[in-house]
Amino acid sequence: MTFKYDNVYLSEVSTVAGPYESKGPFGRYYDKVYNDFYCGTKTWEQAECRMLIDSVDMALYKANKLKQDIDLHISGDLLNQIVSTNYASASIGIPLIGIYSACSTSVLGLIIGSNMVDKDQIRNCLVSTSSHNNGAEKQFRQPVEYGGPKRKTATFTATGAASFLLSSKKERIKVESATIGKVIDLGITDSMNMGAAMAPSAAYTIYQHLKDLKREANYYDLILTGDLGIYGKKILREYMKIEYNIELNNHDDTACMIYDLDNQPVYAGGSGPVCLPLVFNSYIYQKMLDGEISRVLLVATGALLSTSMVNQKLSIPSISHAISLEVTDDIL
Amino acid sequence: MTFKYDNVYLSEVSTVAGPYESKGPFGRYYDKVYNDFYCGTKTWEQAECRMLIDSVDMALYKANKLKQDIDLHISGDLLNQIVSTNYASASIGIPLIGIYSACSTSVLGLIIGSNMVDKDQIRNCLVSTSSHNNGAEKQFRQPVEYGGPKRKTATFTATGAASFLLSSKKERIKVESATIGKVIDLGITDSMNMGAAMAPSAAYTIYQHLKDLKREANYYDLILTGDLGIYGKKILREYMKIEYNIELNNHDDTACMIYDLDNQPVYAGGSGPVCLPLVFNSYIYQKMLDGEISRVLLVATGALLSTSMVNQKLSIPSISHAISLEVTDDIL
Questions:
Q1: How far apart are CA B5 and CA B178, in angstroms?
Q2: I want to staple A55 with a disulfide (CB 3.0 to 4.6 A). Which of A161, A306, A318, B128 is the partner?
Q3: B183 and B120, same domain (yes or no)
Q4: Domain boundary among B151, B167, B183
Q5: Do residue A159 and residue A187 come from a single domain?
Q6: Are residues A181 and A163 in the same domain?
């Protein structure tokens, strides 16, 4: 399902990052950095709430807004019952739409918000997401203290939170169009190879987006998926070519960008719903404002597994959502 | 955040119910009933997927539509990573918005869908939710086989699935307005008393809805909350009066309606995201079509706890969302 927008702009973005992310290539671009996994709280779950609240505060501060100026908050995360979002929201106090779409949360939130802003149903909204490496490991795999080995296709859940402020007030970056994906399941059962599970859904959503808007892939300066990892990225490009006859030459994947893959112990790269927004909000956003790139398609990819379904030996369904951002002269 | 709609109608509804629900007062009104908890599958999680798929198929069948006629599916459930929704969606194959709002999922989905239908961003959408007693007990509390005793304030998670079809095509029941709630946390830590945790959020959302639309509570023939239970229902009415000076005389709660409270072992009543839609879609919907009641405010109430947050002795945040449905002559 593809939407075109006339009236939605990206007003502000914020980033809060954890210890590993701050030592990665974009370390100096994050708005706030924590050097430990507790962020001044007693548990990892509460640390994730803390970062989510920080990212909302930071976005509001940078946009010179108060909470009461914001009509709606759309947010989701990886924890069971999206508790980072829900517990943070009790102190944020903005009407909330809670979503779950694993690592495709950020773009799904941006689409729901853009639809409402575009038709003046709301003046503006914050879209947030977060993840926490140790919290995710404890919940989905094993406590990190066990020191269990991992395969090279595994990814490393990023720690941090990020928020976007959407508004109908004209700004440099316009939200131009978007595509909501379908759940795709091609039978991958290996939860240590989520890039392979997600790549076909990313391919489907990119194909559907280009088809609905009658565009070629090179319409975009950059197609940015997140987070497939080094193996998933390769699979996406091959699958895109074989299945849809589309060459992705202008493509990168945030899982392969967020860390120094040669020197940080992150296997096939980053993951977690915050991975793509940490890369976009810190680095790509600025490149767009600076006029270095003008058309970006963000494709957030989510593996929709749970431990109980993996234990039942079921395969891993995936979904990807895409949103097109464009530098515009509307503001002039 | 309150919305008014001009162009959204409730085209069809469906219900699939489990063994306890089918023996309740609305048993004969459900579209499909399973007499065991497995629904022909091997696990409770897969049984819940089965019921969700059934409810979508049933709604499409009753509306004389095919899957490819539907633009969007909005769905959520209680299981970790909303796997009932996500695994069902792999076979349903309609573009998906996955949401998490605990037992307020149905109305949140209806609001997101109504906003898009109202402005012709989509022609129609299915909104679904599901829950499963044994699946929820295993995940949130203890396996039912343990036979652990419960306090009288506990509720009994309903087993079933329900779908709504929203469309801009004129029908007897119009979606008239809606209010997205805020997360409220007044410090209740007892996960066996979720009615008490949720009542203040229901009160806030009802108050905000009436205030935004400059209405009195008696504007509605029925304000239907779900699912507070017998204690939460009482707390809501008292709290409404003390905090907002509003008398709720036209109020009922689906937790107190779905079972025969005198003869079924359900403690303070039903719960789970499917509780409210099972009651509405089977019984109240027909009463509206028959012209017996014409204005209904559905207020779905969600307790946003998780086991890890309860184990950390944190209190339980809650959220409620409201949607106004009205019998209309638009169709004539």
A1: 8
A2: A161
A3: no
A4: B167
A5: no
A6: no
| A332 found inside a domain | no
A147 plus A206 within the same structural domain: no
C-alpha dihedral (B231, B232, B234, B237), degrees to nearest 10: 180
Overall pTM surpassing 0.90 (yes/no): yes
B284-332 residue pLDDT tens? 999 999 999 999 999 999 999 999 999 999 999 999 999 999 999 876 5
- B91 contacts A315 by C-beta, under 8 angstroms: no
Beta-sheet pairing, A96-98 with B9-17: unpaired
Asked if B121 and A119 come within 8 Å (Cβ–Cβ), the reply is: yes
- Residue pLDDT, tens place only, A139-169: 998 888 888 888 999 999 999 999 999 999 9
Q: Which residue is it, tokens 């094993």? A: A142
Nearest to B71 among A1, A86, A307 (CB): A1
Structural domain boundaries enclosing A55: 2-167
- Subunit contact A87:B304, Cβ cutoff 8 A: yes
Q: Residue B51 contacts by C-beta under 8 Å, 6 or more apart in sequence?
A: B16, B18, B34, B39, B130, B132, B159, B160, B161
What percent of chain A is modeled with pLDDT above 90? 95
The answer to whether the CB of A247 falls within 8 A of the CB of A207 is no
* Residue matched to tokens 């309740």: B24
Task: Give the residue-averaged pLDDT of B30-40.
Answer: 97
Last residue of a domain, one of A123, A138, A167: A167
Residue A196, domain member (yes or no): yes
User: What DSSP designation does A95 have?
Assistant: -
Which SS3 state, helix, strand or coil, does residue A32 take? Answer: strand
Burial class of residue A91, CB neighbours in 10 A (0-12, 13-18, 19+): middle
pLDDT bin (cut points 50, 70, 90) of residue A331 is low
In this prediction, what percent of chain B has a pLDDT beyond 70? Answer: 99
Q: How many CB atoms are located within 10 Å of the residue A41 CB? A: 14
* Range in A157-166, A189-198, B172-181 the model is least confident about: A189-198
In degrees, to the nearest 5, what angle opens at C-alpha A8 toward C-alphas A2 and A13? 105
Q: Give A-chain residues touching B100 at CB under 8 angstroms.
A: 76, 81-82, 98-100
Backbone angles phi, psi at A246, to 5 degrees: -120, 130
Shortest CB distance from A76 goes to which of B42, B87, B100?
B100
Examine the domain organization and report whether B131 and B65 are in the same domain: yes
Residue B48 shares a structural domain with residue B105: yes
Q: Please give the interface size between A and B, counted as residue pairs whose CB atoms are below 8 Å apart.
A: 161
Q: What are phi and psi of A164, to 5 degrees?
A: -125, 140
| Total tally of structural domains belonging to chain B | 2
Q: What is the CATH number of the domain that holds A40?
A: 3.40.47.40
pLDDT of the residue at B141: 86
Q: Assign A176 a pLDDT band (cuts: 50, 70, 90).
A: very high
pLDDT at residue number B42 = 97
Lowest mean pLDDT among A125-134, B138-147, B295-304: B138-147
Distance, C-alpha B19 to centroid of its chain: 19
DSSP helix/strand/coil, A1: coil
Cis peptide before B227 (omega within 30 of 0): yes
Interacting residues of B68 by C-beta distance below 8 A, sequence separation 6+: none
- A209 and A63 inside one domain: no
Q: Report yes or no on B332 lying in a domain.
A: no
ipTM for the complex?
0.97
| Partner-chain contact B139 A319, CB within 8 Å | no
Q: Which amino acid is at B46?
A: Q
Contact between residue A240 and residue A246 where contact means Cβ atoms under 8 Å apart: yes
